[in-house]
Amino acid sequence: xDIKHLVTFLKVIETGSFTRAAELLGYTQSSVTAHIQTxxxxxxxxxxxxxxxxxxxxxxGKEALPHIxxxxxxxxxxxxxxSDKTTIKGELKITATESITLYxxxxxxxxxxxxxxxxxxTLSNATCSMNxxxxxxxxxxxxxxxxxxxxxxxxxxxxLTRENIAVVGNRRISDDVxxxxxxxxxxxxxxxxxxxxxxxxEQSLKEQNITPLQSxxxxxVEALKRCAISGLGITCLPEMTxxxxxxxxTLKRIPFHMEPTLYSQLIYRKDxxxxxxITAFIDIVLxxxxxxxxxxxxx
Length: 299
Description:
By secondary structure, the protein is of the alpha/beta class. The chain contains eleven helices and 15 strands. It has helices spanning 3-15, 18-25, 29-43, 59-80, 98-103, 106-115, 128-136, 196-207, 221-229, 243-248, 276-286; strands spanning 48-51, 54-57, 90-96, 119-125, 142-147, 155-163, 165-169, 182-184, 188-190, 210-212, 215-217, 234-238, 252-253, 262-269, 294-297. The strands form four sheets. Strands 4-3-5-14-6-15 form a six-stranded mixed β-sheet, sandwiched between helices. A hairpin with a 2-residue loop joins strand 1 (48-51) and strand 2 (54-57).
């Protein structure tokens, strides 16, 4: 059993496909199959169940997964011992919410790629809960989340800045549309149901006994803004995403109190080995003008 076999195993899990893993790794599909069979023979247990076109980890595969991630993490450390310290190389996996990606990350990514062009940087988008799980499961190196301050024993959290959440709609909507103890005549425009600020908005409506008669679920921040501007309803978004629209008057702020406060945060596992690439990226994040950072670690 070789390191490349373990890399193949993780790539199959990541892609959910032997064929796709082969394409990304530059192998034939038969080579990927052979790599997995080598591990299975070594462990004397099957790693995947193949149900039609879908594959699922067996109990043995689930048990092996964290150990294989550990081995590859230590292998990265070993590789770095004799490397050229003046040139940072390797891979860096980052995941972030859509709003942070669109409105916070551009200068960070640009600076990092300019300073460290030899690092292979992978960025994916998901909800805050999915991003946090990806960090805890070892599927990503770093994650940006928009949550109340993260206080978990297994995580390091750099609290970057407070993010105000605004309820907005177009100019025709009354300022007192969100009046306690009444039915809401306007539609509410919502993003995915695991979104942190959607959850806070819906909970605040419930606490103030405001009953929405209609709602629409949309797929992106930009779609929510466009529909709100068009007068299709009101929506709740991080203020950083609607600053321009509020300044130009295409959207207006609708008074409404919500708790708890949300913060943009950069999180990673406390036991994570911080490679030179990870350390360099964190340094660039903490240098950004919007950051008023606090590092939080709970023992």
